[in-house]
Amino acid sequence: MKKVLFKIKIVAFTNISVLFFTTKIFANNPIQIENITKSNTTLLIYSSVLISVIFILYVIAVIKKFIFKKKSNEVLKKETDDHVKTAQSLKISKERFDLAMKGSNDGLWDRDLINNTVYYSERWKSMLGFADHEFPDSIKAFEERIHPDDSEQLMNAFHNHLNKKTDFYENKFRIKHKGGHYIWIHDRGKAIFNGEGKPIRIVGTHTDISEKQKIEDELHQYQAHLEDKVNERTQELKRAKEKAEESDRLKSAFLANMSHEIRTPMNAIIGFSDLLIDPDITEEQKHDIINHINKSSNTLVYLIDDIIDIAKIEAGQLKINKTESNINQIILDVCNSFIETNNLKENSPVKLKLKKGIKSDNFTINTDPVRFQQILINLIGNALKYTDKGFVECGYLVKTNENSSSLEFYVSDTGIGIPKEKHKHIFERFSKIEDSKTKLYRGTGLGLTITKNLVEMLGGEIWIESKENVGSTFYFSIPVDEFKGQREDVIKKEDESIKNWESNTILIAEDEESNYRVLQMALRRTNVNILRAKNGQQAVDICKANKKINLVLMDIKMPELNGIEAAKEIKQIRPELPIIAQTAYAMAEDIEITLAAGCCDYLSKPIKTKKLISTLNKYL
Ligand code: ADP
What we know:
The chain is of the alpha/beta class. The protein has helices at residues 2-28, 30-35, 38-104, 122-127, 139-143, 151-162, 210-277, 283-315, 327-341, 369-385, 447-457, 488-491, 513-522, 536-545, 563-573, 588-596, 609-619; strands at residues 107-112, 117-120, 169-176, 182-193, 199-208, 323-326, 350-355, 364-367, 390-400, 405-413, 462-467, 471-480, 505-509, 529-533, 549-555, 579-583, 601-604.
């Protein structure tokens, strides 16, 4: 600038000097001027003016240049200032970003989609257990570590964003750690697009969410478990409610039914008993009437037994008394008794068949013979009840596997059958399938419940196959520890023949007049001498006083001294005297008690004449 001013000064000075001297020459020396030509003077003036113009132009140019330079300097300065400011704010931004990344503990990835290269930050790699130099900045190296189950979903989310289907990329996936285990990553990113809308770069972060995921998984599991529990409980409550409602319905039906079941045989007994008194009835009619009374009485006894059994089962008091039991003999006895009572002779429309799985009549297994017989009676009784024509077959097979053996029994019939949807309810208490419109079947709906419980108490299972209008087969199994054979005593035929016992004296301890009368009548033809005690104490006293007594028929439930106590006392005075208990319960545990008190045998009430005779035959 100074140089420029200096130049201007020199030019200006020269110019002014030329002008000054020219004018001076004209003023001081007019003669000389005379000598000078007019054109020369004009030339001089023009020269001076030209120089002045050039000078002025030069000055203007210099001033212009000066002004322009000043302006550019200002712009430059402004630009420099802006640049510094931008650099500063960039630095602050980077610092902030680095701080944020460090604070969040996230890893950074940056993918160049044009050159297909990638950058992973140190933290990104350390998340996977690698030092910075241990893991290459390679897309393949990353993709190879993704859990196979998560890779498809990751690719989809990534490409959806690159195809602008999503505003940003976000995903959760598992990736293999250097240690071999998988860690959970929360991956987020955003792509940069060029002017044509093509993605050129995508930058994102990785957050290790393994801990969070673990807690989330546990929470989910817990929640699922809770939901399961709630559902389970809801179902349980629903079932319980349905069961309670069903039970209520069944109980009402049972009570109504029970009244009918009791009144029907009672009606027959009372009605026919009245008829017996009629002096005009023939012997044949009398026989017929007695048969009816007998049948109805039996029905009542079975009904009462069932009620007692179900009550015991519900109270958990039903006991099993296992002993060596002759299976073939028991089945045969049950079948024979049905053939007799149901009159299933040759020309009957229903035949009862028996198929033994083991031919030998002498083998035994260890089970409860009373309960086994009860199961058979229930199943065969039902089969006969629900079959009008065809056959009922009872049999069994031996089933053996590596560890155990069992007998698989079946009772098949060609009766009305049971609809499939009723199969699962058939063993529930009080369940009766009242489908038949043509025939009313009597029953309480207790038999199969008792049967199922008994089978299970004997260690077996029961199941059913049945088709409506075709027939039913009930199967049950009984486990066998060991088959024993050749026990003659088990199959010894009972001697039911009437003997002459006129030289024998028996004491009947019985408080109930009618029961005593039945026994007295039943023994009438044997000519046995009968003494009677009306309670336990009298029985003891009579035995003490009368040495001629050969046998005691002891009722259990008596006033003053019961039969058990009386038997114990008598055994102390006369250890050799046979005492036969007459029990109204005939439950396994009652039998045990009577035998433990010293009784040698038992008769369960109602006592049949044949059974009474055959039992006495063993001891007289
Ligand atoms: P119930 O005393 O009524 O016979 P159960 O418990 O023995 O009682 O049987 C329940 C129900 O099962 C019966 O009412 C009957 O509907 C059906 N049932 C049982 N056995 C048979 C069978 N062999 N054939 C057809 N239905 C049967």
